[in-house]
Write a structure and sequence with these properties.
Two copies of one chain form a homodimer.
Chain A: E1 2-9, E2 11-15, E3 20-22, E4 27-28, E5 32-36, E6 43-51, E7 58-61, E8 64-66, H1 71-82, E9 94-101, H2 111-126, H3 134-140, E10 152-155, E11 168-172, E12 180-185, H4 196-206, H5 208-230, H6 234-254, H7 264-280, E13 285-289, E14 295-300, H8 304-314, E15 325-329, E16 336-340
Parallel strand pairs in A: 7-9
Antiparallel strand pairs in A: 1-6, 1-16, 2-5, 3-4, 5-10, 6-9, 7-8, 10-11, 12-14, 12-15, 13-14
Helix pairs in contact in A: 1-3, 2-3, 5-6
Catalytic activity (chains A, B): (R)-5-diphosphomevalonate + ATP = isopentenyl diphosphate + ADP + phosphate + CO2
Domain Diphosphomevalonate decarboxylase-like N-terminal (chains A, B): 8-168
GO biological process, one term (chains A, B): sterol biosynthetic process
């Protein structure tokens, strides 16, 4: 019997992934960039047992049995197994896979990114595979490929039809910009109304603005973002982050029928942050929103205390639907293996 | 002494005007199309007294004295006076102008369009001017030029720098599509947070999606909309109307800082209408939102009763902040003169 447990971090994009050019292989229509958060507050954890005594492969997510015939799960397993030494004695044994997120699942908090990164990493460990497994994680959930690395990560869209060049690379390690912090503001921890998968599919089919964004705006913005990160230029980084979040949600609204992820509380947070920055006379905080109403704020360590106080003042914790902060976390460690037997 | 009273209708755009290429002349970056509503429920009313006894020109809006040195007011007055017979004895007399809207002002319900159309029309009457005064109304408030005509109206953006070809033309009279109805759902009748003027200025300066929309999307969409109106093709008309409303709000979100006009109630209305159309198996209702959270629904007379019942069921009147319906109105009469002495 083999047992592996792994944990994997969440990543929060600052240049957004929205739209696939290949639904099965999960190949995107533009590059994206994210920071990987520390494992301290939010992570996915996966344990895998591989044993000759198991009569079938089973997969639990947060205590609920999942179908193992899903395309995404099967694709990850198949691609991992392609890399396994065919003489490995336990290759034919069944698996018992148990995954958990310590934060709300499918609430637009990158749970599937952490989850699939963790699953693929744990599979790679159990089958003793080395190398860049980000393109395999990508087949589980696109943005999962970015959670394979720590620090600042770019998912290169790639050009080939087989997706072999659509993988994540590290722009800078977590040590590069040690002052950077992320605050996660949980506006609503319920499962989102529009899944990212169907939302982005409809966007690709119906939004003329998305085509323009992917082809003509993101390439330049990606370059500018990489430069801003490398130079630790917070002002430029913050503006690009907010603009790209807004443009992603604009594209969702240009989708037909439209998909909405921001709500009135999200909008109030956006307005508050612009008001705060304007009053401070400099950019102190940047917001970004994924496919849900919850805000992620990027800011420097020196400003964390004041910003938390300001947000607690404007949004007393009782006005929100869940724990207010998931804690301040930093772009941080590489995918971390907790225990490996 | 000369006295004139005029009323002017509201128009609701189905292809949206957003963005000026000239701030002073109010020249737009794309064509727009609207229907002019009947005067029955919503209108602006302006009375002008012209008398040698008046010591200065004064202007009241909804009972409040307004500055008469505003550029917009002065531009309208100057352009009208250019067309006046210089021998007209009362050309030098001062004016007492009194305007009222019978619906919320500056709440994204096209109050300035009706207001300036009415002002310019009343001025034209008092000075005995004939001809297309839509380009003068445009200098008061861009979309006012469309309220000069009844039925279905196109504001041609024009190309000249002096704006002489940026004017409204009628696509079809109010009798063309007699089954068409408009429902106005007042979500919030408060003055909007972001004025249209400053919002669209910021959009032009910062939104890359707006440039693409104006140059590459609206021209084709305008053609399709005109064809749909001429053919009374409700299905195509409705889809284009909803798509263009959504794209306009997408551009607002792509603006930096973003401007928000839709709120959670607006979004709930959008979702309800897509749900309703889907359940009916055909497009029965189309929504459109201007620079505010209030919805305008375009639908055919046969469906009005059921749609009103459905909306009253989902949004009981007490859940909204104001009178629920401003009434069902039709694309209707030409600018109507009530009294002219």
């Amino acid at each position: 019997m083999k047992i592996v447990t792994a944990v994997a971090p969440v990543n929060i994009a600052v240049i957004k992934y929205w739209g696939k050019r290949d639904e099965t292989l999960i190949l995107p229509i533009n590059d994206s960039i994210s920071a990987t958060l520390s494992l301290e507050h939010m992570c996915a954890k996966t344990s895998i047992v591989c044993s000759p005594d198991l009569t079938e492969t089973k997969f639990w997510l947060n205590g609920e049995l999942q179908p193992t015939d899903s395309k995404r799960f099967q694709n990850c397993l198949r691609e991992i197994k392609k890399l396994v030494n065919p003489n490995l004695e336990y290759l034919s044994w069944n698996l018992s896979i148990c995954s958990e997120n310590n934060f709300p699942t499918a609430a637009g908090l990158a749970s599937s990114a952490a989850g699939y990164a963790c699953l693929v990493y744990a599979l790679a460990k159990i089958y003793e595979i080395n190398g860049n497994i980000s393109s395999i994680a990508r087949m589980g959930s696109g943005s999962a490929c970015r959670s394979i690395f720590g620090g600042w990560v770019r998912w290169q869209m790639g050009n080939t039809t087989d997706g072999s060049d659509s993988l994540a690379v590290q722009i800078a390690p977590e040590t590069h910009w040690p002052e950077m912090r992320v605050l996660v503001l949980v506006v609503n921890d319920k499962t989102k109304t529009y899944s990212s998968t169907s939302g982005m599919k409809t966007s690709v089919e119906t939004s003329t603005l998305l085509k323009h964004r992917a082809a003509n705006i993101v390439p330049q913005r990606t370059k500018e973002m990489i430069t801003a990160i490398k130079n630790k230029d917070y002002k430029t980084f913050a503006k690009l982050t907010m603009q790209d979040s807004n443009q992603f949600h604009a594209v969702c609204l240009d989708t037909y029928p439209p998909c909405f992820y921001l709500n009135d509380t999200s909008r109030a947070i956006i307005e508050l942050i612009h008001f705060y920055n304007q009053n401070k006379g400099e950019t102190k905080v940047a917001y970004t929103f994924d496919a849900g109403p919850n805000a992620c704020l990027y800011l420097l360590e020196k400003d964390v205390a004041e910003v938390i106080a300001m947000i607690n003042y404007v949004f007393p914790p009782t006005s929100l639907k869940s724990d207010y902060f998931k804690g301040d976390t930093v772009p941080s460690k590489k995918l971390d293996e907790v225990s490996l037997k």
